[in-house]
Amino acid sequence: MAGRYVSVWFRHLMTDWFSLQEPERRKQPFVLTAPVHGRVMIVAANAVAEARGIHVGMALADARAVEPTLQALPERPGLARKLLHRLAEWCIRFTPVVAVDLPDGLLLDVSGCAHLWGGETPYLQAIVRKLQARQYDVQAAMADTPGRAWGVARFGRAPWVIEPQRHLDTLLTLPPEALRLEADAVARMHKLGLHQVRQFIHLPRPSLRRRFGESFLQRLGQALGHEDEVLAPVQPVEAYQERLPCLEPIVTATGIAIGLEQLLQTLCKRLQQEQKGLRAAVLKGYRVDGKVEQVSIGTHRPSNSPQHLFKLFETSLPTLEPALGIELFILEASKVEEHYDHQEKLWEGHGGLDDLRLSELIDRLSGRLGPEVIHRYMPDEHYWPERSFRRAVSLQEQPTAPWCIGHLRPVQLLAIPERVEVSALTPDHPPMLFRYKGQLHTIVRADGPERIEQEWWLQQGQHRDYYRVEDDAGRRYWLFRLGHYHEKIYQWFIHGFLA
């Protein structure tokens, strides 16, 4: 199936943007200027100025002689690229593949999108109408190659939707500029009397290559569809994405929930067919005013259950603010993993980390309390306590090393050991008193020391002598001395709390 592409041409991109900042400029002759070889030249003009004979490339002094009331401002370098990038992101509501086409356009890959708007003509009209509502003067065309759509949008005439069977006829009547050729090639063609594509399209390719270069043949091939042209979208397209345009803007919580349910059913059906499950997803709502509302979820194991995923989204749905209404919903599965349905054994009970109900419970708790509240940890092959474990990627991950159970460890380990003041007999006696956060603790029982050396292959430093101590209130702590007593510098730290 051939692709379909839309080229959007912003006829007065820069002056339209400046007029948005001050609407009165839209009714007056207005231009943007830049210094060129010591002269102030016009680089952009609005429609009013063009109607009075002022055009790009004219000197500002000459233009003011033609129109004394002409207003002029210096251009802002780099603004066109930033502006087109923002407009491209806004156009994602029409298709996931939108590319910037400098200096004044966008290219959209709309393959398979038009039916959501009732056909290609209503689809193209919707794009133009909504951009015009944002106060931009636009012209757009749809064709089966980006090059042909580009040429028709700038040099063609209505109808702007070019049917595949008419694409060659439409191209023949266009000037050479419609092929996106370099300026010197266009000048040479006009000098030779080649003013329409029909006059040279059937000439031998070697002759055209010798006279106009390889880039000329590439542009011609792209327009005819003989050479592929890959668009670079402003946002990477997720492999697992579902879109739901709305006939009328959605403003109610019920409508948002119904839209989410439809998207989840479609996405999960596809995931189930491919034996995959999502680990992370985001729901985006594109509002009428151009803003995007979104909520995201994460799971602890791959899931393709629409009911479970809806419950995870349900907690955050009230945070979506539809304002004047949401006109497009997009559901993206940003992280997808293999998911195989395991056969359940009726004679064995459920339990452990493989129980699906456990992962769904953790997902719901994480959705309510936050993703950083519940974690699973795995043993890591290190002696240093704070490096002896790591955070697990998922509930399904299997440990690569056994837990160290030869020594008692605290149930809560501080991320960074904290300094404490200690009174102890020497040499190598356990502490008798220690002060932590301003409170004095009298130690009634102590076990130790347990020496843990530095991992010399990672870092150099002093060893630690750990003690398990209990104060007179029955609270138990894990303390250590860094270095020997006979060394000039040694310090005491608290590293954890025991049960």
TrEMBL record:
List UniProt keywords, sorted A-Z: DNA damage
Alphabetical list of InterPro entries matching this protein: DNA/RNA_pol_sf, Rev_trsase/Diguanyl_cyclase, SulA_CellDiv_inhibitor, UmuC
Instruction: Please list the residue ranges annotated as the UmuC domain.
Output: 15-149
Q: Entry's Pfam families?
A: IMS
Q: Does the keyword DNA damage apply?
A: yes
**GO BP terms:** DNA repair
Q: Which domain of life is it from?
A: Bacteria
Entry annotated with the keyword DNA damage: yes
Protein family per UniProt: Belongs to the DNA polymerase type-Y family.
What name does UniProt use for this protein?
DNA polymerase Y family protein
Q: Which organism is it from?
A: Dawidia soli
